[in-house]
């Protein structure tokens, strides 16, 4: 059994941003030489999430609206007071809502690999989602198999 | 290490349908001969999801109601306009809400396998959920282990 | 390839409780001797969930508030009538809302292991969440790798 791990980078320009990382993930699988196995995508960040669906811009807008409704930005989050109360290290962002969205959606995805290819529907894309941009972030891609 | 992969089929008759696929998943594990390892269930579809809980019909009704409240069918979804604007290929479904539910719940589940059996609580069932039925769909079951 | 599996216990004192199990998970990885691979944390319970984010008490309060808003405790859940209608075995809890929260958040998490360590951000914690305490529960930790 082989394990191959690589990081990819995404850089958000706006507060909430969806990155379609499907082709970058496939490149890591290609580099691994693994033909059959398991893909793990993991976001080592507390204001990011991973999600899978159709990369259709209007749909992404719809889904953002759903997330805004569930976790509104203009609610009060106690975490924001915590951030304000810290003297150092905090960058003063009111990002309680970003953490909650990450909590809800989750930071990892696992997918099957068959004959060296991600076994997904051509309409499915893997998204790394930033909820507290703009920032530079890395995403961990791990391939495990034979 | 061995990897075994199989597809199972589900066919929805109504718009939203929960399929308890637990026993079919166990059959795939049996067929694999794998005794210790990891199960991955993956839905290669953008209006489906996978979820785990008690197979109790009234609870499923409750959970459907929660999902309807979070992602109402009678809201306006921009994705539905996108679908309408396509001349070909679209089947004209207003399924923006279905995609959003799939986005939120996720399309995969991973579980432990011990002594050839799914290591779950007898009260837990694995559900493949269709949010845009009726349709025929396949679900990928992958067993990895020794 | 090696597979190592262990259970850890959590005991809730209140109805909803977040347990930071990150260090216990790391201890299981240490015990496994596995250096590179995949961690699976799985809750074999229908009113629990697993989630990952910053262990900051005010943030956890915020996230609990989000969950309460999505799945309110004071709504009517048909499952609660089902529980009441059973003569035996039921402990009479009105826990429809707890099941729905578990359904929504999910009962497993998968993470990468590098050089014998969980490859997570120091700000990330793995939480086992009980939605129907107080209870004693076990969580399954599985390490797979080389």
Q: Care to describe what's here?
A:
Three copies of one chain form a homotrimer. Chain A is of the alpha+beta class and 146 residues long. In chain A, 29% of the residues lie in helices and 35% in strands. Chain A contains four helices and eight strands, in the order E-E-H-E-E-H-H-H-E-E-E-E. In chain A, the strands form two sheets. Chain A has a five-stranded antiparallel beta sheet, with helices on one face. In chain A, strand 5 and strand 6 (117-118) form a beta hairpin. Chain A is elongated, with a radius of gyration of 17 Å. In chain A, 53% of the residues are buried. Chains in contact: A-B, A-C, B-C. Chain A binds chain B through residues 1, 36-38, 51-54, 56, 58-59, 61-63, 66, 69-70, 104-106, 109-112, 114, 119-121, 123-124, 144-146, and chain B through 1, 3, 5, 38, 40, 42, 44-46, 70-71, 77-79, 81-82, 96, 99-100, 102-104, 106-108, 110, 140, 142, 144.
Q: Which labels suit this protein?
A:
146 residues; 29% helix; 4 helices; alpha+beta; homotrimer; five-stranded antiparallel beta sheet
